[in-house]
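Hi everyone,

Forwarding the result from last night's run.
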Amino acid sequence: MMMMAALFAMNVLAEKVNFKVANMHCQNCANRVEKALKANEAVSEVKVDLESHAVSVSFDAEKTSVEALQKALADAKFEAEVAKSCCEGGCKKHEGKEEKHECGGKGCGKHEKKTQE
């Protein structure tokens, strides 16, 4: 029972942030980004999408902050910005469709590659 309470508490405190890392160009960069973030013991998961320059980080919000994670990336010489949700910005990519883009509106960066027609 106590273990269930601990697991529940961990899920409640878990938070997720998405970064856009402009100067992440190769697999070595992606590895360095992941290593810099995982050095923080509050980070539970890091997912790097090299193609879209996107990084998703799950962390314990009671032990660290988005600013601290961003600073860790800056200290590793990466230019990281908190990614904006692709759907909140009015991208109209999903308008009239039931199925949403794989990012789930979490700012994957995939829409920025498209040029305006």
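The chain has three helices and four strands.

Cheers,
N.
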